[in-house]
């Protein structure tokens, strides 16, 4: 086993009110009889805090949905953590984006409210997850908005005590557009202008609950570098004026153990081409690092490494090394600022977490790691299944007595949608899905192989036009891996998806990430008006894996539609993203279903394990890996991602504009006059941007619109393809 991949699990004492070192190997807890809550919704886990001895159930929402409270037999008291979407990084020597605002009533945090909240049943509590702010443009001549955009607000919609966490401020950009935005955490000041620009400040909590602060301010811009964005744990550090003139790191995030008891710091293998895991799973709301003005040896990051990786800018190297890194969705981090002439990174989407005391665990888990869910009705065995859900990097740890056949399912990160050039962009391909069973026998394993690293694939970064270089940042998804003993080889790796065709790709959809020659991610769709081919998926069907090619772009002259990205359930078509797949029944716990009706024909969905897909009731849920939709031209709405034939406009469900079936990103049509009302900074198709795939969907991002005038932007726009969705890893064994 490659021991450079991870550090051992380590406990943390009383961080945001929770003791560390607890394990879910404990079946019961003493003392408190619990809140008496029977609820569903979100990704559900259970654990025992060893410091207090209390058993907890937690509901984790990384996409909009609802917490359904069926009944309350006790005091009904809950605790929450609400984090807004992080701000986007600035471009052309841009500053880091501010983290999303942090709101919690768990004691021990600077921004904690002491007010207890109770729920009653039956009731439905709406959950809104703030989107990550888009990055600034890197073309000041035609679209002079180089500063990043603010992230969206996250809302825990309690009927009498709603809690709103504001989105983080967008990072400052170039020249006269350097001004930073305030937000939940403020953004850093941008560079390249004639005057020193101040950093963005924090904003007060919308509901006025004391304390009103939600984060920290960003760092200002002392010439010639840029400032880092503020985080929930500290302000953005001041830039280093050089030499070299690097930007300031992002303000550190805040650690919380509300999801579970153990924190693990992770690194990726040194032998492959994987992007290092950039955050610990339970560090939230880190600020984005500022971009560098001159050559620097490494990115500017928060200390410790947080959800917002900073960009850096060696002026003599490719454009790929000048862009800011996107923050990882589901943690509220700010996007990194860019180096010279580069583009910033997008902010990460926010999160809402609710927990309450249960008195005792539902069952006994035989291993630790991730969110531990108990599904008594699983067909895995007569006793049901224990499911470990990894939405971010972690470790799966077994005792020496563990001897089970584990069923696993995972998907790599989805690729980004293509950007405009002379034509619209194709949709991004989904990550590869891998599934199967394997014996895990503790008694036969050396002690060092009882702890197995998990890597969750990152999304392909937002993708935009770039002249003159075709080497424009990372846009393919990265792999997911489950480190079962001896498994750094093929059987436990799911590669990331390919980027859609667009500017800088020669018009062709690119194949999926191919660090593994067999289990390649789905291909991106081809660029419009070129008859550009889509990227390839797996060369032939595999019994334990799935990915498909992207669709071809339309020829010129012709309709001008970008090809859809391939999904894990089918190839991309003309505009439409390839279909996704539903999870095996082993993992389909109905308590983790999202909103009312599944799929574009119903009332939408979100918040649970998986995403809407075809079918009704429970059969229309638990879908993953839809391909991103290509852009549509010359009229009409953009298509849904993930194989749907519906358009994306559903006024009753705003989150429907973010992603389509199976989590794939939606494409964009040019008829902006018919765009649904919504936030102007949203990275949905509202402003010509390709729609982002959903967090932890493994879906491909949507393709962007051509550079054309519209009612929203009469001079024409600088539009980016949507981000791919992060991956996920699931492990189950008999309960």
Attribute tags:
6-stranded antiparallel sheet; single chain; mainly beta; 735 residues; disordered N terminus
Low-confidence stretches: 1-32, 263-280, 302-310, 312-316, 465-473, 596-604, 648-656, 671-686, 709-714
Order of helices and strands: EEEEEEEEEEEEEEEEEEEEEEEEE
Largest sheet: 6 strands, antiparallel
Query: How many DSSP H or I helices?
Result: 0
C-alpha-based Rg, rounded: 23 Å
Q: Brief overview, please?
A:
The chain has 735 residues and is an all-beta fold. It is built from no helices and 25 strands.
How would you explain this protein's 3D organization?
A hairpin with a 6-residue loop joins strand 9 (154-156) and strand 10 (163-165). The protein is mainly β and 735 residues long. The chain contains no helices and 25 strands. The protein is 0% helix and 16% strand. The protein has a domain at 386-735. Strands 2, 3, 5, 6, 7 and 13 form a 6-stranded antiparallel beta sheet that branches. A 6-stranded antiparallel beta sheet has the order 14-15-25-17-18-22, with no helix packed on it. The N terminus is likely disordered.
List the helices and strands and how they pair.
Elements: E1 37-40, E2 43-48, E3 55-61, E4 65-72, E5 77-83, E6 102-104, E7 117-118, E8 123-128, E9 154-156, E10 163-165, E11 254-255, E12 283-284, E13 351-357, E14 371-375, E15 385-390, E16 394-397, E17 403-411, E18 433-441, E19 451-455, E20 480-482, E21 493-494, E22 545-546, E23 581-582, E24 623-624, E25 728-734
Antiparallel strand pairs: 1-4, 2-3, 3-13, 4-8, 5-6, 5-7, 5-13, 8-9, 9-10, 11-12, 14-15, 15-25, 16-19, 17-18, 17-25, 18-22, 19-20, 20-21, 23-24
């Amino acid at each position: 086993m490659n021991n450079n991949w991870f550090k051992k699990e380590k406990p943390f004492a009383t961080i945001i009110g929770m003791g560390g070192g607890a394990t879910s190997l404990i079946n019961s807890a003493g003392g408190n009889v619990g809140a008496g809550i029977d609820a569903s919704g979100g990704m559900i886990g259970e654990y025992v805090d060893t410091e207090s001895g209390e058993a907890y159930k937690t509901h984790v929402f990384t996409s909009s949905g609802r917490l359904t409270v069926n009944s309350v037999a006790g005091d009904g008291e809950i605790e929450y953590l609400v984090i807004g979407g992080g701000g986007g990084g600035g471009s052309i020597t841009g500053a880091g984006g501010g983290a999303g605002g942090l709101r919690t009533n768990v004691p021990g945090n600077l921004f904690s409210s002491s007010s207890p909240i109770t729920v009653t049943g039956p009731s439905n509590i709406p959950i809104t997850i703030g989107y990550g702010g888009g990055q600034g443009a890197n073309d000041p001549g035609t679209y002079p908005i180089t500063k990043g955009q603010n992230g969206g607000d996250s809302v825990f919609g309690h009927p009498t005590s709603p809690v709103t966490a504001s989105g983080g401020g967008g990072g400052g950009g170039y020249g006269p557009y350097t001004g930073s935005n305030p937000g939940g955490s403020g953004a850093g000041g941008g560079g390249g202008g004639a005057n020193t620009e101040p950093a963005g400040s924090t904003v007060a909590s919308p509901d006025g609950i004391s304390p009103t602060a939600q984060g920290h301010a960003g760092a200002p811009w002392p010439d010639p570098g840029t400032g880092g964005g503020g985080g929930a744990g500290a302000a953005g550090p001041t830039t280093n004026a050089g030499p070299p003139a690097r930007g300031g790191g992002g303000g550190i995030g805040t650690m919380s153990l509300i999801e579970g008891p153990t924190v693990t710091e992770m690194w990726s293998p040194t032998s492959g081409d994987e992007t290092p895991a950039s955050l610990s799973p339970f560090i939230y709301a880190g600020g984005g690092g500022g971009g560098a003005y001159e050559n620097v040896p490494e990115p500017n990051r928060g200390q410790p490494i947080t959800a917002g990786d900073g960009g850096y800018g060696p002026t003599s190297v490719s454009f790929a090394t000048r862009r800011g890194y996107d923050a990882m969705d589901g943690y509220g981090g700010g996007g990194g600022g860019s180096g010279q002439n580069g583009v910033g990174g997008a902010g990460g989407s926010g999160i809402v977490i609710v927990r309450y005391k249960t008195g005792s665990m539902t069952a006994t888990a035989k291993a630790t790691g991730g969110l531990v869910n108990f599904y008594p009705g699983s067909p895995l065995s007569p006793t049901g299944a224990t499911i470990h859900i990894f939405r971010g990097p972690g470790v799966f740890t077994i005792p020496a007595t563990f001897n089970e056949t584990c069923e696993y399912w995972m998907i790599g990160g989805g690729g980004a949608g293509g950007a405009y050039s002379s034509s619209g962009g194709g949709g991004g391909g989904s990550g590869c899905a891998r599934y199967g069973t394997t014996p895990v026998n503790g008694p036969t394993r050396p002690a060092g192989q009882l702890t197995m690293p998990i890597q969750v694939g990152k999304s392909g970064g937002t993708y935009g036009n770039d002249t003159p270089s075709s080497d424009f940042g990372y846009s393919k998804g990265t792999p997911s891996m489950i480190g079962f003993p001896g498994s750094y080889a093929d059987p436990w790796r799911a590669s990331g998806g390919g980027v859609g065709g667009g500017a800088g790709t020669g018009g062709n959809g690119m194949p999926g990430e191919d660090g593994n020659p067999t289990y390649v991610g789905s291909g991106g769709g081809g660029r419009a008006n070129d008859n550009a081919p889509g990227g390839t998926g797996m060369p032939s069907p595999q019994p334990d894996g799935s990915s498909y090619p992207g669709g071809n772009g339309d020829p010129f002259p012709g309709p001008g539609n970008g090809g859809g990205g391939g999904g894990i359930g089918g190839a991309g078509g003309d505009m439409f993203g390839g279909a996704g797949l539903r999870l095996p029944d082993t993992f389909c716990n109905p308590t983790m279903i999202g909103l009312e009706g599944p799929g574009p024909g119903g009332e939408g969905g979100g918040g649970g394990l998986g995403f809407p897909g075809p079918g009704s009731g429970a059969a229309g849920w638990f879908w993953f890996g839809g391909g991103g939709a290509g852009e549509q031209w010359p009229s009409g709405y953009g298509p849904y991602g993930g194989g749907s034939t519906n358009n994306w406009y559903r006024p009753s469900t705003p989150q429907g504009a973010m992603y389509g079936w199976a989590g794939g990103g939606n494409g964009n049509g040019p008829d902006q006059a018919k765009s649904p009302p919504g936030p102007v900074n949203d990275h949905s198709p509202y402003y010509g941007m390709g729609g982002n795939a959903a967090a932890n969907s493994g879906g491909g991002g949507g393709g962007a619109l051509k550079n054309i005038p519209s009612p929203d932007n009469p001079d024409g726009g600088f539009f980016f393809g949507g981000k791919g969705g992060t991956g996920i890893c699931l492990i189950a064994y008999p309960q």
